[in-house]
Amino acid sequence: MTSKVFHSHWQLPAINEAGTLMQNALHLDLEELEAGLDYIRQSPNDQGAVKMIVRRPETDKRETLTHAELDIAEGLVGDNWLQRGSSRTPDGSAHPEMQLNIMNARVIALVARTEDRWPLAGDQIYVDLDLSKRNLPAGTQLRLGSAIVEVTEVPHMGCRKFVARFGLEAMKFVNSGLGKQLCLRGINARVVKSGAFNVGDIVSRLA
Questions:
Q1: Domains along the chain?
Q2: Chain centroid to CA 115: how far?
C-alpha cells in the first residue's frame, strides 16, 4: 500500500520584508498565548484524535495528507527525514530518535491562528492529546491506526524558522520552563511498529 490522497501540496513562501509584515500581523503576544494555556491543559490524557498529517517531501515543501503510512526504517513514508539527515548525529545521518515530530493540535491552533498555517511548524502529526512529560514520558508508546510509535528522550524545541513563522513571543511561550514541561513545541518519536493511519483516527496511549 502506498500513501495517497492529500489536501494540498505547496512550497513555503520566502520571508521578505513584505512577508515579514504580513506574518507579524498574525503573531500573538505572550499574554494572548498564555490565555490559551487552560484550554491546552484540557487535552485528553489517554485517547485523542489525529487532526492533521503533514509530509515533507523536500525542504520547505509540504503535503497535507488524509492517509499516511509509518515505517520502522523510513518514518513517515514519503517524508524527507531519512534523506535530510541531522546536524545532531556524528556523521550527519538521520537521527533515529527524531524520526517523527508530533505537536498538540490545540497549541498549533493557538500559535498559527488559522489551520492553513499549521504546516508552517514543520511537524508531521498533529493530535488532540496531552503531550506533556508527565503524561507521555520518554518510552511511552502511542497507537496510531495500525502503527505504534514511541516517545523518545530528545526534546523538540522552537528554532529560528519557528520564530520567523510564528513570532519571538511564540518561541518564548513554547520554550519556557512550563512550555518544556507541557511539551508545547511537541515531542520527538520513532516508529516501533509499521502501519497506516488517517486523519480522524484515534491516537491512544498504550499501558
A1: 6-205 (2.40.33.20)
A2: 13
Q: What is the enclosing helix (H) or strand (E) of 170?
A: helix 168-175
Q: Contact, 134 vs 183, CB < 8 A?
A: no
Residue with cell 520527538: 188
Q: How many residues does the chain have?
A: 207
Average pLDDT along the chain, 207 residues, taken 10 residues at a time = 42 42 68 96 98 93 96 96 78 84 97 94 97 98 98 89 92 96 98 98 95
For residue 9, what are the β-bridge partners? 63
Q: Look at strands 125-127 and 100-104 and give their pairing.
A: parallel
* Residue 184 CB burial class (10 angstroms; 0-12, 13-18, ≥19): buried
Q: Would you list the DSSP string of 49-64?
A: EEEEEEE-SSTTEEEE
Q: Which pLDDT value is given to residue 31?
A: 94
- In this structure, what C-alpha cell is assigned to residue 204? 491512544
Beta pairing, strands 75-76 & 100-104 = unpaired
Element at 164 (helix H, strand E) = helix 160-166
- In this prediction, residue 59 carries a pLDDT of 84
Give residue 10's pLDDT: 45
For residue 62, give the C-alpha cell.
509540504
